[in-house]
Write a structure and sequence with these properties.
Radius of gyration: 19 Å
Number of domains: 2
Strand order of the largest sheet: 1-6-7-5
Number of helices: 6
Shape: globular
CATH topology of the largest domain: Helicase, Ruva Protein, domain 3
Strand content: 15-25%
Number of strands: 10
Largest sheet: 4 strands, antiparallel
Length: 270
DNA sequence: CTAAGGACCTGTCGGC
DNA sequence: TGCCGACAGGTCCTTA
């Protein structure tokens, strides 16, 4: 489900309820996520004070005085605030209970998400090899160009590789390439610097716009405030197969790359 | 090293 | 109406 804008929307939604709160307890109803929920979560989290809620790539980092809970939402996960006694649904796997009487609830039907504990999150095995944040300073066209030399993989798969740049998922990869006018099938190593500059700009623009709109709700994404994201209406190509291109009226083309759907305009993207 | 495919899960939707 | 396959916002692991 969530790409960077949806995770960021979730982060902003839960932050005011969680920061400065003491964790009263943790209720784990289903431990079998992508990886079993770290046992250390049960032992270390209760009693901690939350100091901040950060995001790295698509991970939510719940920082406390004694360590960090590292939460990933996978394909179908969401986090939201409930009153502590709110009955749990079938896929509500974890509650982090707060002394305020609220609880941070993790729901994840497909269980591709994860929950780890670390006292040095940036060196955690899930995080240590990630590429730069697309909205950060080290990410630009020159960086992408440099990393892409000699690579034959399609540029769409290249920008979805978290070792290259984080946070660009299946929706925003298609959207960014449309905005930059680049054919998603083009080999990453055969794209010149100026086009990578356009692409880096496009990635930043698309992600920022989506964050401003509260993310993209295709079916079941709701931010921490319970509201769906509004960016769906602004999608140019994603999920628009056979619909007219918003620039040239040509029908949008759908293909499959790396077992994922890709959408693009054959006329506008070369 | 790179690239491609499989694996992990449940829910929903379209077609027959 | 009911069943069945295809597909879904992610990403690690294995294999070549």
């Amino acid at each position: 489900m969530p790409e960077l804008p949806e995770v960021e929307t979730s982060r902003r939604g839960i932050e005011p309820y969680v920061v400065d709160q003491k964790i009263a307890g943790v209720r784990i109803r289903e431990r079998r996520l992508r990886w079993p929920v770290d046992r250390e979560i049960d032992d270390h989290l209760p009693g901690q004070i939350v100091t901040s809620v950060d995001r790295r790539a698509k991970y939510l980092l719940i920082n406390t005085t004694g360590g960090t809970a590292i939460l990933h939402l996978g394909m179908s996960g969401s986090v939201f605030i409930v009153d502590r006694d709110t009955p749990a649904g079938v896929h509500d796997h974890v509650d982090i209970e707060l002394e305020s009487g609220h609880a941070l609830r993790l729901r994840d039907p497909r269980r591709f998400g994860s929950l780890h504990w670390s006292d040095d999150a940036s060196n955690h095995w899930l995080l240590k090899d990630l590429g730069p944040e697309p909205l950060g300073d080290e990410f630009d066209g020159e960086y992408l160009w440099g990393r892409s030399r000699g690579r034959r993989v399609a540029v769409k798969q290249f920008i979805m590789n978290a070792g290259i740049v984080v946070g660009v998922g299946n929706i925003y990869a298609s959207e960014s390439l449309f905005l930059a006018g680049i054919n998603p099938k083009r080999a990453a190593g055969r794209i010149a610097l100026p086009r990578y500059e356009a692409l880096a700009d496009a990635i930043r623009t698309v992600l920022q716009k989506s964050i401003r709109a509260g993310g993209t709700t295709l079916r079941d994404f709701y931010g921490g405030d319970g509201e769906p994201g509004n960016f769906r209406q602004e999608l140019q190509v994603y999920d628009r197969a056979d619909d007219p291109c918003r620039h040239c009226d040509q029908p949008i083309t759908a293909i499959v790359q790396g077992q994922r759907a890709t959408y693009y305009c054959k006329r506008c993207q070369t």
